[in-house]
Amino acid sequence: MAKSNVSVNTIDYRNPAYYTNRELSWLDFNYRILDEARDKKNPLFERLKFLSITASNLDEFFMVRVASLKDMVHARYAKPDLAGLRAEQQLELVQKKCHELIDRQYSTLIRSLVPALKQNKLEIITDFEDLTPDQAAFADSYFKENVYPVLTPMAMDASRPFPLIRNKTLNIGALISRKEDVGMNSVAQTVMKNLQKNGELKAEKVTKDKALKGGTVFATVQVPGVLPRIIVLPDKEDGTHAGVLLEDVIERNMDKLFTGYNVVCAHPYRVTRNADLTLDEDDADDLLEEIQKKIKKRQWGEVIRFEYEDSMNPKLLKILKKEFGVRQEEMYPIGGPLDLTFLMKAYGMSGFDHLKEQPWTPQPVPALMNLKEDEDLFSAIRRKDIFLHHPYETFDPVVKLIRMASKDPDVLAIKITLYRVSGHSPIVAALAAAAENGKQVTALVELKARFDEENNIQWAEMLEKSGCHVIYGLVGLKTHSKIALVVRREEDGIRRYVHLATGNYNDSTARLYTDCGIMTCNEAFGEDATAVFNMLSGYSEPRHWNRLSLAPIWLREKITSLIDREIEHAKAGEEAYIIAKMNSLCDRDVIAKLYEASAAGVRIQLIIRGICCLRVGIPGVSENISVRSIVGTFLEHARIFCFGNGGHEELYMASADWMPRNLDRRVEIMFPLEDRDSAAAARHILDVQLADTLKAHELKENNQYEKIDRRGKERIGAQAVFMKEAMEAAKGEDPTVSRVFTPASAREEQD
Fold first, then answer.
1. What is the set of domains in the chain, with CATH numbers?
2. Catalytic residues
């Protein structure tokens, strides 16, 4: 056990110098994803996917986090963050780092990925001079038949103000001038005369009208999102597959949109707007109606970021800058295609499977593979708790549990919390069927799940029509817990079956995110689950809890007490350690407590995918703490916590990260793994991830993340290990922890 020579009593663990700004830490996470796009050991199309993910992540970061910082600056919010930075300081640092990140994105695309694609017989053509005659004819024909009917060109003049440019849409801005031999069309003449007659045309607009006749005016067209961004062209003679971007085809044909005008210039641009919903829930008579109103306002929120082609005409740029009201640091000149999320569509192109990882098929859950013909899922759960590890193991048992419960005549009630569900959710369909079959169905549908509000509103309304009792979240809190309860009448009385998990009831993301869960009929868990739903539906808080720890009631205190217990074991010379896996760590009180534990000699190993505001290697403070982040094929999403407890190890899983929002402003659940096999499975996950030498980045004392130095180490890819073990178990073999197994993308020459 590690020791510290610095007196614990002399240290201020809340010193801002000991913390990293949350937003800058998130950008570091996006850099780690970008590193995967730059890593030539990854299959080429996987690299495209990682680059696309960085762009999608950055969009949300601007819409929510940068927008929040701007709101604080506007409100003159002066309180510094845990790293001692005021809002305006954070905004300045964030914008600087975002410019650097975006430059690196496009450097990766242009200098590395585009040439690699060309070497593999795939070209995304941006210069129409590079098209063959057949390809050019195809592109023009495609525009005429498929694109032109969808477009709505808009010009700005006396009768038409600057149009609303919707959030995240791709647009083409242009300067147009009237051809000398064409007069003003009859519609425009009538409008002008009426405006002048009624005194509605101001002097400056008359000047603008004159400019229309003799100078240039602004025009724009939105690139339609309903059409494919990449238009597949006929192959070249050498067999090279080719595609052209939709905006380039539109730009080539802009003259057809503004007949009677010369197109002086045309360039793509895009804006990101403030999309952070601020709800006054206390004064909202109808939460559903209030959220619906706020969703609509996302389209015209304040412009947070303005992206544009770096060769844009200065006059056109000046017009757009003025209309959007952006400062120089909010302007992002782009030397390549705007909105790199289109690369995810490129990933789906057929004929390039050899440049991708083999698609993963989730394997059967071992505990459910050998059910007897007359045995159902309920009997399997009665026999033993069932541990689930997605996406290595299939999500089907969770869907099956709800479906079976919806049809079983002995099931009396089903209760569930829904935070994010898929577009065609089988679980929601099963809940609706259960209500129609006469079951008592209660579903808490969280309407405040960011960017899933519209989807959740639709599901909530559908469930209500089916006869379910729907709770539209709680005022002031987001319900982020993942819990389902099935109440069943059996020979020996009422029995409660409980599913608890770290991930959402979303069958789609369950194939992409790594999450864990358990199915149990342990009576103590059942009583707590009933108490949870009674609290959510009727504000009835029980006097005591058996196993579950809930936020915002006492989860924070539980975590603190578990860390304090390790401190006491360390002081007593007993075994003391903490292993914690989560998505983000940015709660100052929890970090301060971890610092205190480290100073007392507790060994702390953290596996944190994204944000980490803790700093390692601070003398006397965090010398006993290590931090690693794993970025792989699947998004790491599980939360697992292990405490040494003086040799009597305890493991927990939770829906919550160690963040203020999770501990104070959300309904979250942490639950212990009391079943020996479940605890061993969770501990195995931690062990393998701590041994990862292929996909793990380590946080260094300089506050930078670096890939593991693999020299002299086994080549271990945690996600690949779990896939191999799942396949072995599905074949009936005893899974071996083959830690040298690596996917094709990770194989390399000896260092």
1. 131-283+302-324 (3.30.1840.10), 366-547 (3.30.870.10), 550-746 (3.30.870.10)
2. 480
